[in-house]
Amino acid sequence: MKRTSVRLLMAALILAPVTLAVLPAAQAASILTPESQFAAQGGPALYGSICAGCHMPGAQGAVGAGHYPALAGNPHVASAGYVVHNVLHGYHGMPGFGGELSDQQVADVVNYVRTHFGNAYADAVSPDMVAKAR
Amino acid sequence: MPNDFDLSAPSHPGAGPAGVSRRQLLSLIGRAAGGSAMYSAMSTLGLAQESPYRGARPLTGGRRDQTILVLGAGMAGLVAAYELRNAGYTVKVLDYNQRAGGRSWTLRGGDVFTELGGERQECRFEHGLYLNPGPWRLPHHHHAMLDYAHRLKVPLEPFMMVNYNSYLHSSKAFGGKPQRVKRIQADFHGHVAELLGKVTAQHQLDAAVTREDQEKLLEALRDWGALDEQHRYARNLTSAVRRGYDIAPGGGLMPLPQPSEPIALNEILDSGLWKYLSAGADYDFQQAIFQPVGGMDAIAMALYREVKDLVQLNAKVTAIHQDAAGVTVRYVPSHGSGPAHTVRADWCVCTIPLSVLSQLELTVQPALREAIEAVPYAASVKIGLQFKRRFWEQDEQIYGGISFTDLPIQMVSYPSTNYGHAGKGVLLGGYLFGPHAYEFTAMPPAERVRRAVEYGTQIHAQYPQEFEHGVAVGWHRVPWILGCYGQWTDDMRAKHYQTLCTQDGRLVLAGEHASMIPAWQEGAVLSSLDAIQRLHAQILATHPLHKASV
């Protein structure tokens, strides 16, 4: 089920540098730009506009004071449920995106990651499976 | 923490039923303007509390034979090191970065910044121009930050939070033409005042407001909304005093002043621009609000100068272990090669962001480990753009302040300093949160800058002609933090906040992530002061004075 994520709203409240996001949920729904949802559709576009920020365009990850794990050749990616869970709910410092992505978008980006970057897993994720993991 | 905040709830002595009604009405008015709804939302998060800082209370009687290792040389770490050393303890600080200050960071001409993924940006701003990629404002109630600035003699200047002559912009309203703040605000207030006045005059508020107070309310609405004698908001010299003129007052035989035509209420409501009007009304953003002269890093740098001899930069912590007798921290050089080192101390104040700390080897109780792993880090992007001239001042009379827009860049902020300077200028060309911040983070820096210029051109047509170069920082790509700040929710706080802030053996955490003022330096500093006061008390309690040095 898609929800107007309370967590997302709270996050927006905390981070709002100005008033934009500091609105009760009812008003937030009428905001001009659909800021609370990612517009990208399809695996490559979703990966490129969200995941690539940290996991990098080639999914090789990155290392600084901490690190972003590579998704390329990452054995954890074998578990579709694990990846879906992390995209929806986050993992440690990684934010969850369940409030900002539809079931279809989550399925698309998870399927993309699991069939690219040297990953070749045949068990595709369906939007229904994503809905159940919310 | 309180979960709701009702403006009408705290009844004060002598408030009868009529008084409550009045407060409720005022609350209603405020809500029409967006203020109270926002205020109550802020309060839900504990953001509207006065800082509990009560002035400098340096620790005294610290023990030179007790060693304290501080991890991180951002505001929290620097404050801890400064106060603990002044108290008499033996202190050492490690930081991953090549410079102190952490997120209290200013980019100037000549600075080079390499983000995760390897993209390297060289800031080419003219001398004296800068971008604060992180914090950039100091509210008047951030007592601890202001106190450190004053004590360390860091000069401050007003940050222009509210500028009536800056723009509100919707790409979908008024043909995409930006509107001056003063006009949207005057017209919105004027129309609301007129409507409420009508309802009052028709005695539809009799149940809520006494007849006597209705008279006062009408008078107040007329004043607040710049209404005429018939309680109308209309094109006349009364409304012009608020929204400005078609022909402004001049001198001598210049043309007589001509009022301007208000924008209809439905147009303002449809535009959504009303939602930006309370930008400067929130507790965190009310004037007076300040910035350090020359860049936000000035306060951190002033602290750093005081404790520089204690700080080791270029030290990447990989493990924090503790036992009954002390703490052992392992680190390697952040850049370049070299052997791993270990450092042993009696106590540890750890200000490493949770995004990084959650990845380290750590000897802590399972509940603390769980708390450290629970908090995601928010995305944010800031983009600084240098232009050949300060056209916003010269062409549009915008001196400091912020223009808000529904475009992904979310705002353009004008420098609150050096007004009228004839040379080049740097704008904050975008300050992004939410999905757009992730999208911009995922772009190469040059693309972030290019898009900021493209979007900004919709607000300032001078952009293509005057733009020179820019820098763009996406916080998830910053190697020493991996995100902008700890993005707590009420649920997370209920489960983990107390644990996160509670000393675990010989280790105590501090930083904005261990505060109720997330993302603000004040949160980092208060968290640090609170942590070291508790630590100090424990050391004094567990180590009798006979070993203390004088």
Folded structure, characterized:
The complex is a heterodimer of chains A (134) and B (550). Helices cover 43% and strands 3% of the residues of chain A. Chain A has 134 residues and is mostly helical. Chain A folds into 2 domains: 1-31, no CATH class; 39-133, Cytochrome Bc1 Complex, Chain D, domain 2. A two-stranded antiparallel ribbon of chain A has the order 1-2. In chain A, helix 3 packs across helix 5 (103-115). Chain A is globular and about 35 Å long. Residues 1-33 of chain A have low confidence and may be disordered. Chain B folds into 3 domains: 67-101 and 298-377 and 482-544, FAD/NAD(P)-binding domain (3-Layer(bba) Sandwich); 107-135 and 378-477, Polyamine Oxidase, Chain A, domain 2 (Alpha-Beta Complex), CATH 3.90.660; 181-278, de novo design (two linked rop proteins) (Up-down Bundle). Chain B starts with 16 loop residues before the first helix and ends in an 8-residue tail after the last helix. The interface between A and B is large, with 51 and 76 residues.
Gist?
Chain A is mostly helical and 134 residues long. Helices cover 43% and strands 3% of the residues of chain A. Chain A is built from six helices and two strands.
Write the layout of secondary structure elements.
The complex is a heterodimer of chains A (about 130) and B (about 550).
Chain A: H1 6-15, H2 25-28, H3 43-55, E1 62-63, E2 67-68, H4 80-89, H5 103-115, H6 127-133
Antiparallel strand pairs in A: 1-2
Helix pairs in contact in A: 3-5, 4-5, 5-6
Chain B: H1 17-33, H2 35-44, E1 67-71, H3 75-87, E2 90-94, E3 107-108, E4 112-114, E5 120-122, E6 130-131, E7 138-139, H4 143-151, E8 156-158, E9 167-169, E10 179-180, H5 181-201, H6 211-225, H7 237-243, E11 245-247, E12 258-259, H8 265-271, E13 289-292, H9 297-307, E14 311-312, E15 315-322, E16 327-333, E17 341-345, E18 347-350, H10 354-357, E19 361-362, H11 366-374, E20 380-387, H12 391-394, E21 401-405, E22 411-414, E23 425-433, H13 435-441, H14 445-456, H15 463-466, E24 467-474, H16 490-501, E25 507-509, H17 521-542
Helix pairs in contact in B: 1-2, 3-9, 3-17, 5-6, 11-16
